[in-house]
Amino acid sequence: MRIIKKIALAVFKDRKMLQVRTSKQPEVFYTLGGKIEKGETDLECLRREV
Length: 50
Known about the structure:
The protein is an alpha+beta fold. It has one helix at 42-49; strands spanning 6-9, 11-13, 16-18, 32-35. The chain is globular and about 35 Å long. The termini are far apart.
């Protein structure tokens, strides 16, 4: 079985959550984050994804 490591970041301010969406599917909102590349730390991944 192949293991894929992922990480997500939830940002809250004034009872609101920051999310992103794409131009391909503007009606869908996503939590910030993504796949951790080989040799990359969790923090490096979050910096790259955000």
